[in-house]
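<instruction>
Derive structure tokens from the sequence
<data>
Labelled lines for chain and fold:
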Amino acid sequence: MGTFQPEETHESRSSSKSFALRWKHENMRQMALIAIFSIALTIMILLVVYGQAGKQISLVIDGKAQVVETRTGMLQEMLEEQSITVSPHDKVSMSMNGAITDGDRIVIERAVPVNITADGDTKTLYTTDSSVQDAIQKSGIQVASNDKVYPALGSAVKADMKIRVVRVTKRTVKVEQPIAYKVIKTADPSLYKGDNRVVINGKEGTIVQHIEKVFQDGELVSKKMVGKSVANNRVDKVIAVGTKAKPVVKAPEIQTVSAQTSTTKKATTTNSKKTSASGSKVITVSGNSFKYSKVLKNVSMTAYSSEEPGIGTKTASGTRVTEGRTIAVDPKVIPIGWWVYIEGLGFRRAEDTGGAIKGNKIDVYYDSVKHALNFGRKKGKTVYVIGPVKPEAN
């Protein structure tokens, strides 16, 4: 018996080959995708393995550097690993979610709290700035050129520092002051001796002082005169003094009696002069003679001005301070309202007092504080106390 062999035809071999080609064609795309996915997965695994490898990171916190070894991939993870906390106000050189690589340098600046007071309001600011000026600028507070800042703008910022901005404003006001008129006496040959006539009535003038006042946070801290102008000129009082000799009426019929009377008057006058010379005190200065009640030796003198803080323009006696006239005295030594003659200075009137003016001490008034300071302190002066009436020039 022979073995049965299936009949192999040309059609069957062709059909098998066609099936293989068709299967290969249909699955080629899937095989390509599987190959690409495998390669990508391999690369990702390699990257993860590489990323998990040890890294050395240079970490600088508030200027202090340290080297940190880590296997984490993000900054946030590394800081948590090292137990380093970062507040929302701190300044970090890179994003907290940023990836870190070997050799990276990360800088962290800690923010510190400072208290800033300005315009009556205090607020707390967290800052990483190094100077007071930068911290104020970041706070949004404007500082004018005249304002003052404590501590100074260039000072280094420290934790819990108290910064104060003082608002400085300046205002100029006008203050009117009277100008005393002078009394001028002129010789008038048309008038008899002993007769006087007012030619021009005196009138006070007005001077306007420009006073600059400085305020700090609304409070007056200083004032000074920055200028002055004359609003009304003074008018000096002019008095005509008679110089014409009075006529002598001769009476022959009573010549003898007149002679006796004249002799009696002469004797009386001589006796009166002797009494005056022996009982009064008279001094002659620049050709003018006047009486005085007492003399003060070794008087100490200083000067003051209404431009000084706390010094007004009204004296203790109620008058206005006037340069060339007003002085402050101890009323126990020189009565208020009395005139004096100060050696080397001239006539002055006691119109003011002062807490430091005691005994033989006098404070001389000047409009300008500069002149008052230049006056300084003078000692060993002689002062003649005259009385309530100022002597007139001869």
Q: What stands out?
A: The chain is about 25% helix and 40% strand. Residues 10-51 form the longest helix (42 residues). Residues 179 and 352 are 18 Å apart (CA to CA). Residues 251-279 have pLDDT under 50 and may be disordered.
